Amino acid sequence: MLYSWKKALKLQASFLAFFVAIILFWMLAIYVDVQSISDTEENAAEEPVSSEFLQFSNPDRREKTSPEISFDGNQNKTENSENVYAELIQNFNSTFNKTSQEIESSSPNMQEHSQNNIEENREKEASKGNDFLSNKLMNISSSQMINKSSSTEEENMKSQNTETNKSSEFDYSGLAEAAEKNETQSLSNFNTSDHFNFQNNSAVIGIEDNEEKKLLNKTKNNAGIADSKDNNATSLSVLADIAEVNSMTSFNSSLPLKNEFSEIQKDTSPYSISQPDASLSENKQEEPDETHIEITSEQLSPGAIIKNPEIKCKPHILGLTKKQASTIFRFNKRKFSCGDDYDIFSYKDNAIRMDCAFHGKAEFSLGSLPEVETIGSAPSSQSWHEYSSPTDTGGSEFGFAKCGESKKQAFLHNKFSESASRRAQEKRKSIESSLNLTSSKPLTVLTVVFDSVSRQHFYRILTKTVDYMNQNIAKGKFSKEFAIYDFKIEHASGENTLPNVVPLLLGESYDNHKDKVRGSSLSNSERFKSIQQEHSIWKHFEDQGFVTMFGWETKWDYLSKMVGRKVWTDHVVSRLYFAAANLFGFAEESDRERCIGNHFQHQYLLNYTKEFIRNYKDHNKYAYTHFSSGHEKTGSVIRTMDSDLASYINDILEYYSQNEEDLVLILTSDHGLHVGPWDTYEGGKIENLLPYSFYILNKELIKKLGKNTHETLTHNAEHITSKYDMHVSLKYLAYTPYQKHIKDTPLYNSLKSKPLLKKAVSVFIEKIPDNRTCGDIGNPNYWCACRNFEDKSVTDYEELAESVGQLGISQINERVARDKMQYSCASLELGKVIGIKHEPIPGLSYLYSGIYSLNVTIKEHLGYIFTIQAIAVPEWEYGKYSRSPFEGEIFKMSDIKFKDQQLRIQVQSIVRADENNDYCIELGKGLIGGKISYCVCKTPKDYEIAPKTGHSEKKFYENVMKLVYPTIGKEGTSCDETCKTKDRDCQEWGLQIMNNFDLLSQQWNGGVSTYSIAMDGGFKDFKKLQIMGVDRGEMPGLRKINKETRFVQGNWTDLYCDSKISDIRPICSCSRHQVELR
């Protein structure tokens, strides 16, 4: 019995040895496959991007390719490779024979059965393995094989230095010591990183600690492989160790080929990330296995759920309520369009070909050359030329074509620059050489900025984009490869663009930089060139081996005052929009579709950016693009970008999922909208303070940046951030292709040397402290969304509250008079202070100094409530905390004595706190020249229209009538029913206009009305209705009495869209169907 058990144990051991041998052979096949694919990738010709990557064009790259970077390396012969693999096969056969002999002698009863199976499997596997090896050996890179087979000390050290430094720090003081240490490693031909990883698509593993060595020895012993210093045995032992690792990790060894057209299978291995050698870091630290870090994205939501209760800066509101937003935004459901898609020209091989057919004379106009591209309001000298045959566009990247006057179209294409490519690649190679890197993985950084779009409005209006990111990045299609972070408290540094883009692009405050360039002539290009070289984001990226691009989708001239007319990047897009205005009459201020030819304004720059990415494949790339569709008073034009932005994000992710390049895509805005009626409410003012910021990165890059990067990004996404943080983050990203991110290094600290950058962080590597405030990002108290007010008793603060309230009402009346709004806005008197809140200012010792927020009512205007915010500080501190006038603003100041403390107060903000004045909101949409938040609007009931009025008042009344679409319904119908027949909605606020006979009959013109009104399927002049008089009634409309038409004026306080009277034809205010806001 004992003998039988011993025999059984021997059989089990034999079978184990047999299966280990099979696994070894399988891993050998994988190893050869990996080598072959790596070689195939290195020798594959560059393929063009799929046409599906572009939305509405198929531009020509002119087949120029970037210069290849060659790296030094030993050239090996195929016979060396064959010798290595011959010995490996011999070792495998020896192990196999030994196992067979043990089985043969163990049990006669089992011999026949087992031997038949063994011999059958042996023949199959040997045949398959020899065929496999013979095929793969023909494709093995000789330089890769010599790294596995060479045993000379010089080659070992060279190989290790190359691999070890692949992801090194810029501090290379430990390089010599690391190389000396590596020289003594037992596995001298393999990288000494802590973990199994892929480098240059070659599978390698470093064995450093005792436990791993024990694992290796155990695996070798189980496989029947003797300890040997021979490289062949070492290679086989490593394969045995890989087999052990595979049994624990289910490693997927398949690697995709870099072919943009092929349907590739993504490598989902958690080990596909190169890890830097910690010995090269100035701050040497032990790194856990970062490859197993779980990176998941949260679902995007407009509500900022802050999980950390210790965070000091948390806005008390995020923006407008849904009701307020629905009042301000009246988006109709019509489809925005730029006309038909028929193209009158084609672009191929750098030439345009026109086909006007029967549409008139064919003419074209080519844009300026890239080297003279400028920003700002420099005049455009575009002119038309007659087209006769295919025309080469030369160096021009944009141009126009037209057929007669009926069809006008434009083109914009990125053209590959040989000089830009050569400079970037030579710089990249130089940095790699200085770091002893074999190569670096290319990085693309895209900063996409929308002007005047708050975080809440992004969620409110760009619904398709939000849905796409939730369904394809947070979850779904790209969730395994990319992650998205929503920075919930991204905070503006000022009300408009310059205070926000100057910190982002130059790392300086707007005020400081304005002083620096004061007096500089825009024609002094060398002065601004030196400023850009020293401070700008794009020059920093250029210095680190990046090709650069700058897109400024506007004619506005303000940025040129900060950086000059010329932006020194490799590619600039700006003059297209000036030329379009000159040739097409393009108006970028329009609150409707903004079209250049048959495409929206924004589509040209989105498409150009994708061409830029394609043309500079395998290059480091940086692009800044600024879009202006959000900058208009209605907040609705940005809707035209929704589908295109979602498609753009999809195209970018699709491209980078199929190419071996890292990606950082930052979607952000400079500030929220601040024109028109937006800041009527406090929520609108807050939205101006809170732009949006989304960071999208590939997960491989996140892991490469360090084990804490995902945690740090998630942490920072809940804290207040600014464009100063984005500036530091972007500049640090420029080093990413060459090193690992470690904070507190001299390199990192040098990026934060400017005063306002000292408290800024790279959001990728440094956690924002929980106690960060608006002051820490350089914002004054009055420009801060984070308030910590404490309710106070109105009675206890009566004297101070009365002073602040009266000062605020005086400020409103002064502004109304100065802006000549008295015919539309009422003169106000303070009613009551119904609430007061106080927030101390740190550092001020006076008990009653600080920031006050009051809610006040207005006499004779029930329902109106204003929120007045003011500071109260000692006189000697006033200069530090006061707000300077700008853009016509008035901030009134007064000195008071309150509870024996002498204080100076200043009103710094006035907004509406009520939600019941739709009519005034509508007037604010362009009709009132001043601040609508300061206005208690006179309603049509209060209009005193005289036969003769001044020009300004007459213009006001005419504009009031343009707010509505008057429609006369049938007898006994309501305005809801009447408007529905016109595929429109009834506007209840507009019924006040319909209820004023003097407005409809244009009494300011002496009663000579030229106004058309919709009725009975057509239009009719109001004066032709021959109205004989005005009666009082239930609703505005027309009534027949003894064959006379009389106007019925309804009760001013009871004007409703659903009212109907059997003998009255209602006069209704209709609008297009409205979009349901989220």
UniProtKB/TrEMBL annotation:
The Polar residues compositionally biased stretches are 99-118, 158-167, 267-282
User: Quick one: where's region Disordered?
Assistant: 42-77, 99-127, 144-168, 266-292
Against InterPro entries, the record matches this protein to: Alkaline_phosphatase_core_sf, DUF229
The record lists the lineage as: Eukaryota, Sar, Alveolata, Ciliophora, Postciliodesmatophora
Q: Which residues cross the membrane?
A: 12-32
- What name does this protein carry? Uncharacterized protein
Species per Swiss-Prot/TrEMBL record: Blepharisma stoltei
Any one GO CC term of the record: extracellular space
Bias-annotated ranges (Basic and acidic residues) = 283-292
Matching Pfam families: DUF229
What does the UniProt keyword field contain?
Membrane, Transmembrane, Transmembrane helix
